[in-house]
Design a protein that fits this description.
alpha/beta, 17% strand, single chain, three-stranded parallel beta sheet
Length: 101
Amino acid sequence: KNLEVNTALNGKEAIDFLVLNGNDILPCLIVLDTNMPTMDGWEFLSTYNQKITDEIKKKTVVVMMTAVDTDAVVTRALSDPNVSDTAQKPLSDIKFKNLIK
């Protein structure tokens, strides 16, 4: 199946994209990094929870990636009701394909 991939360099760009295009281009998967410039993954989640409609949230899977896969990071990420899973970087092609499925 062909999927359209949209990228953002940071969390602010991702939020702006969702606010502007969420009804027209609904992502099925958002992959966040805990460490991004301008707005990191944690700040993205806070803004996402406030600004994005429940309709979009229900149809979108959010995965938090981190280079530091500690229990504290995983627990913090999964405590957000919109985060479905976590993944440790670097992410292999196989792991990424599994996330997509």
